[in-house]
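Running log. JK asked me to keep both predictions on one page so they can be read side by side. First protein, sequence followed by its tokens:
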Amino acid sequence: MSFDFTLTITAGLVRRFAEATGDWNPIHFDDNAARRVGLSGRCAHGLLILGYAAQRLALEDLSIHRITAQYTRAAGVGETIHFRFNAQAGGFDWTAESTTGERVASGRIVVQ
């Protein structure tokens, strides 16, 4: 089994994630703060990306046992991210890529 979905990173989505987690790091809300640390502009929280990957599998009524993630680059506010899931023994390998094919994150989700 394999499946995919897309998610557009909006300022509202990032704000709601910050409200839920308490992570108000300025790189998520201020382009200048993001640029000062080498980013091209405001970006999503890494765990926001991971959370959407996990949520998608939960929608398949799968019980998640373990999740791994490797972040390659930040997902910018306004960017659309394409998630892909490929079934492998015991779980799913997943990737999150920009519309230009640049990898944002990838990992494995082990299900029971």
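And the second, directly underneath as requested:
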Amino acid sequence: MNFFLFKRDKEFYNKAVKMLIENKLEKTFIDHFLLGMDIAGRDNEHAQFVLSYIGHRLRVDTLNTFEQCLLIEFTLLKGNDEEKANARVVAQNTLLE
């Protein structure tokens, strides 16, 4: 639901949902994705959390297919060249599964 609101009703997401996600004690991968996408650049804790998955195949394997797609999207937008290359490999592997 949070992802849907992030994509479809950004104004409501920013007013109501974002604050709730920021205040959660245990954030999920998708929570970090949403908060990291909302901040410009990659130098924040949420972006670093998401990008920490891309170089580690075992960590990527803990994500479901939807989360892997979000990881690929995030990395292609905010990753460095090496991370983007790794994201392309993850994308190819995800397509083969």
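Observation for JK regarding the second prediction: The chain has seven helices and no strands.
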